[in-house]
Design brief:
- Strands 1-3-6 form a 3-stranded parallel sheet, with helices on both faces. A 3-stranded mixed sheet has the order 2-4-5.
- It has helices at 2-6, 23-30, 57-65, 67-76, 82-88, 97-112, 116-129, 134-149, 152-162, 174-177; strands spanning 13-16, 19-21, 33-36, 41-43, 80-81, 93-94.
- With 178 residues, the protein is mainly α.
- The protein has 10 helices and 6 strands.
- It is globular.
- It folds into 2 domains: 2-111, 2-enoyl-CoA Hydratase, Chain A, domain 1 (Alpha-Beta Complex), CATH 3.90.226.10; 114-177, Lyase 2-enoyl-coa Hydratase, Chain  A, domain 2, CATH 1.10.12.10.
- Helices cover 56% and strands 10% of the residues.
């Protein structure tokens, strides 16, 4: 299920409040954007139960933090508070509890105004590039650009830019149209 969230063609946003441990952290790390409240504590404490994370969190945190930093948090089963999580890049913003839902909706609204085709292409490119040599990444960028260059969304984006207005992208059946 967690891999399915990460592989969605649409962007995903996690709102993290309070204790987000174990599978909660694993699910959050699979999301594209993570917004936390000041009281959030995330972590993978499975070692303290005689276990290891096994729903992708171990891999994702090693890739996010690098093996040296990840060892510290994983071996100790250490919880990571909001300020430290933002410094590590595990969450993207800290928002007051009362404003958190509104901030998530603001981000969602912004994402919904963007080209669904370009979002899908970008998410796929990021997934493929993250573990690839530079040359492979450059090739993937060029292919995604070439694919989108003749799309209706790109044409609309250029028209809107020239006309100084917000683009009106079409809603697509992304599985069918890409």
């Amino acid at each position: 299920m967690i891999e399915a969230v990460e592989n969605l063609s649409k962007p995903t946003i996690a709102l993290l409040r309070g204790y987000v441990l174990g599978a909660g952290t694993e699910l959050a790390l699979a999301c594209d954007i993570r917004i936390g409240t000041p009281d959030v504590e995330i972590g993978l404490p499975e070692i303290r139960l005689g276990m290891v994370p096994a729903s992708g969190g171990l891999t994702r945190i090693v890739k996010a933090l690098g093996p040296l930093r990840a060892r510290y948090y994983l071996l100790l089963g250490r919880r990571i508070k909001a300020e430290e999580a933002i410094q590590l890049g595990l969450i993207h913003e800290i928002v007051d509890q009362a404003k958190a839902h509104d901030r998530v909706m603001e981000i969602a609204k912004d994402l919904m105004s963007l080209s669904p085709l370009a979002i899908k292409a970008l998410k796929e490119a990021i997934r493929l590039i993250q573990d690839s040599p530079m040359e492979v990444g450059f090739d993937l960028e060029r292919k995604a650009f070439a694919l989108l260059r003749y799309s209706q969304d790109f044409q609309e984006g250029i028209r809107a830019f020239k006309e100084r207005r917000q683009p009106r992208f079409q809603a697509y059946n992304v599985a069918k149209d890409y």
